[in-house]
Design a protein that fits this description.
The structure holds two protein chains of two kinds. Chain A contains four helices and no strands. By secondary structure, chain A is mostly helical. Chain A is flat, with a radius of gyration of 26 Å. Chain B is built from five helices and no strands. Chain B is elongated. Classes of the chains: A mainly alpha, B mainly alpha.
Chain lengths: 91, 157
């Protein structure tokens, strides 16, 4: 019975993978999206920063950067909670 | 005194520490002009502090800087969030200083230009805040781990 299940599952997986391979987009498609063009054309004027990557990270996608900073903050808090000074004279 | 490293390491650290910190601060405050930014520059500054901990372990363990690091880390994150909230009259994270003509508000032209420092609005300020936070946070992690290693070694002897 287990073998039958395995065969059915494997055949479904193989069919799925072959279908996925044959229906892949050609290499490089889709090319330029509208968002890329907008950033390249307008980021320097709108934000005023020469570094377009920074203007995306800190201005257009600032909320994402806030999440990253919060993740780092949480990591530091957990390390502090784990390794904070433990008083040894309580024994 | 056993945990301090040799004179060679201490002398080289004395020489190199300032340069590492200056380089990290340069990466942080020029984040809107050159590759890099708050996260990368903060990591560089934290690596300078890590070198300092390794070379002068005993001195720094006695000074107990974790309260200071924790305070500055929180202040950095709070400045970042406050700058984001200052533009709340348009949207969250609205760049209210860009192209305003005032602080960091210089207008630039499209294309190649020399890279003026006084541009990009709140982006340099946010870079500094995030750099502050990352530098102090990573230094705190390195300090706590290194303190654990030192105390473990002393207990074993």
């Amino acid at each position: 019975m287990k073998t039958a299940y395995a065969v059915i599952f494997m055949s479904i997986l193989v069919v799925f993978l072959f279908t996925a391979i044959t229906t892949l987009h050609p290499m490089g498609y889709p090319g330029h999206t509208e968002m890329d063009d907008y950033f390249i054309k307008n980021a320097q004027i709108e934000v005023g920063a020469n570094n377009v990557v920074t203007s995306i990270v800190f201005d257009y996608r600032g909320f994402d950067t806030l999440g990253e900073a919060t993740v780092l903050f949480t990591a530091v808090i957990s390390v502090v909670a784990l390794l904070r000074g433990v008083k040894k004279d309580e024994e | 005194m056993k945990s301090d490293m040799s004179t060679i390491v201490k002398t080289v650290t004395d020489f190199l520490f300032g340069f590492i910190i200056i380089f990290g601060i340069y990466i942080i405050i020029h984040g809107h002009l050159t590759p890099g930014g708050g996260f990368q520059g903060g990591a560089v500054v934290a690596s300078g502090f890590a070198l300092l901990f390794v070379a002068f372990a005993r001195t720094f363990l006695d000074k107990k800087p974790q309260q200071l690091y924790g305070l500055f880390e929180s202040v950095g994150l709070l400045i970042f969030i406050s700058l984001a909230f200052l533009g709340i009259y348009r949207t969250f994270f609205y760049n209210f200083l860009a192209n305003s003509g005032g602080l960091f508000g210089m207008k630039i032209t499209q294309g190649i230009n020399p890279g003026y420092f006084n541009t990009a609005g709140v982006v340099p300020l946010m870079n500094m805040a995030v750099g502050f936070e990352v530098a102090c946070g990573l230094s705190l992690i390195v300090y706590l781990l290194y303190r654990g290693v030192i105390e473990e070694g002393e207990d074993g002897e």
